[in-house]
Amino acid sequence: VWYGSTTAMDHKRLQRVVKTLWQLNRTWVFQGNGAALQPQTMLLDEGHERLYVGAKNALFSLSLDHVNTHYREIQWASTESQIEECLMKGREKPECANYIKVLQQYNKTHLLVCGTGAFNPICALVRVGHTGQDKLFALQEDSIMSGRGRCPYDPNSPCASILSRGELYISLYTDYWENDGALCRLNNQTYTRTERDDRQQLNEPKFVGSAVIPDNDDRDDDKVYFFFTERETDAEGVNKAVYTRIGRVCANDQGGQRMLVNRWSSFLKARLICSVAGQNGIDTHFDDLEDVFILKNRDGKNPEIFGLFSTTSAVFKGYAVCIYHMDDIRAAFNGPFAYRERPNHHWTPYEDRVPYPRPGSCASKVNGGGFSSSKEFPDEVLRFVRSHPVMYHPVLPQHRRPVLLQTEPGRRRLTQLAVDRVHAQDGHYHVLYIGTDDSVVLKVITIYNKDTDTMEEVLLEELQVFKVPVPIREIIISPKRQQLYVGSEVGVAQVRLHQCDLYGSECADCCLARDPYCAWDGLTCSRFYPAGVYTKRRFRRQDVRHGNAIQLCNGLQIDAEEKLVYGVESNSTLLECVPRSLQAKVLWFLQEGGEKHQVSLIDERVIVTSHGLLFLRVRSSDAGVYMCQTVEHGYVHTLLRIMLHVLVGERVELAIYKANHGEEEKSATPCSSSMGPHSRMWYKEFLQLIGYGDAQRVEEYCERVWCSDKKRKKAKRKYVPQGGEKRGKGRGEENSHRAPRHTLVT
Ligand SMILES: *[C@@H]1O[C@H](CO)[C@@H](O)[C@H](O)[C@H]1NC(C)=O
Ligand SMILES: *[C@@H]1O[C@H](CO)[C@@H](O)[C@H](O)[C@H]1NC(C)=O
Ligand SMILES: *[C@@H]1O[C@H](CO)[C@@H](O)[C@H](O)[C@H]1NC(C)=O
Ligand SMILES: CC(=O)N[C@H]1CO[C@H](CO)[C@@H](O)[C@@H]1O
Fold this sequence. Notes:
By secondary structure, the protein is mainly beta. Helices cover 13% and strands 36% of the residues. The protein has six domains: 1-30 and 426-497, no CATH class; 37-152; 194-411, YVTN repeat-like/Quinoprotein amine dehydrogenase (Methylamine Dehydrogenase, Chain H); 500-552, ligand-binding face of the semaphorins, domain 2 (2-Layer Sandwich); 561-647, Immunoglobulins (Immunoglobulin-like, Sandwich), CATH 2.60.40.10; 653-737, no CATH class. The chain contains eleven helices and 45 strands. Strands 1, 38, 40, 41, 44 and 45 form a six-stranded mixed sheet that branches. A five-stranded mixed sheet has the order 2-32-31-30-29. Strands 8, 9, 10, 11 and 12 form a five-stranded antiparallel sheet that branches. Strand 14 and strand 15 (181-186) form a beta hairpin.
């Protein structure tokens, strides 16, 4: 029986915990002034190099360089009388605060900010910019106005907003009781919205996102898209399934003249489908939209739209990411309208005559220029659009399937999504950053294989950005700064998108990482820039699609590291070897007389663990040269050569006695293991787990085997390899005389 261990967990290669992110200067966290920050919304302002954070009773302006230094703060709490009034309405104390839910760039010098104001929404303008040394950041008292219709009352109410050309588009519940969900546009003169109490337009909506996307160069033809979920209703108005919708209006919609006054005259919606085919022919649908990310392209007309969805089932929570193209979205809106005779009938395509101009089109030159405003549209058009707001065809995702799936039950919940487009040697990649409910950001790429019509997910890194497990509420990418800004109730973290040198110093490590940000430059794993950016670059080795290290890194292997480990006869000994990648399969070999044999499962004394090869009771005959080899993606790499010496019991006792009594020990020291602190913890726990004596004994035992650091250092200075110990059957004689590169102390 051969044995080795596969440590592929969820196919991820690396796990980065808070501690290492801090130590590596890859992250900074802003936690405010002690009180729980509770960020509600964030806004990136690359022009002023600031990140604005709308929180509970406060608004912050953070430095994009280091979020936790040089921040500015505006306190904006509700007044005592407002809080009292809120409590009188029967609300709880924590709800009766000013939670800032709307934060938009109003113009170059001002932000529009709205808060819940203890269930009495308010808005104001905030001055931002440079004045000499000081970064300007001040609320303009004279601009404070009512926030009704621009901000929800309830801090937990979903809302999504976007500001374009001085107009605020917002989807929200406009009333105290949360009965009136609406898609609205506000400027200083008009307020345009969906109909009140029209379940055909919106039915128990949950608002997720919005975007302004031009169709062509005629700005009068610009469309505003809203992403939300809602319920389908049946004949009796009884609620049925939840669907994800993409809704659309013309940005220049002025409403109707006689009917639909101050109401959208162009509102239409289509269903967004994200599903996988099941073996039994039944598709699994992911109908609950959790988050949406609009990945802009150069001309702004054809962004890629990423949706993070979950299943609506209460028992099984699965997640999927789907990508939508504007062509498919436009095709759905240009296709047939949906029609049903009665609410309990099936939807069919509407086949009768459709009035002119086509309902849902904008008053623009592109559309013939026959109408200067929607107010001139014939009543027939308005009536039609009002009664047929649903498109018959749904929008299907790219490749008709999700690019990413998480369907095992009991796994972490996925909450947020942001995407970066990265140029690599072999093409463009979407790097997905997915926030979870336990403070983790997953960094993932997905690769489509055309030949097999399959999707490969590669989990590049798992970044734990907050110390305590809290849901990630917001992720913003700054491609310019190559930073990620992550919000949760405890603070705002900033994380560098990549840290290539962490993949290792070898070509193979770098190549197997398959991180499109990184390539091996001949010396190190470093940031990859496409040709032309830095013209002097020499050849860079990178293969994101296949991670073919065998081909790319042929002849570039570095000799395996060598280590000397002492074991004490009849006691346990760990030959530590932890591969950098969690996807590497580890194999152990014993070198014997010039040949190497894979370590086989002879007896139960030897266990392969995720930390290395563990001898429960080492024998003198176990001494020899062990090789720790990893196989990943077909690439074989010898990581370590470990020389195991086995010390005989009495010698050890004597050595320890002498060491403890400050006597010089001239022979070999038994401070035998060269483990890192992490492995020591693990080792200790493991010994207890396998019933190796009680906790006290294990503690004593470990202390003695490792000695104190001071003694270890002392021992290292004094230690001269003597070769005097009993070494089983002369194995590895040859190699054990070679001076090891690394000895006792790691
Ligand atoms: C992190 O930053 C500190 C202070 O600037 C510096 O001393 C330390 O060496 C840095 N650590 C790494 C791993 O770059
Ligand atoms: C931005 O808007 C404010 C308020 O309307 C106005 O006072 C200010 O001049 C505007 N700034 C610019 C640069 O237009
Ligand atoms: C707001 O109103 C003022 C005066 O009525 C007008 O000059 C200005 O253009 C309006 N701004 C927007 C964005 O409509
Ligand atoms: C150094 C040390 O802990 N030696 C122990 C090794 O195992 C034998 C038998 O279990 C013990 O008697 C020794 O004390």
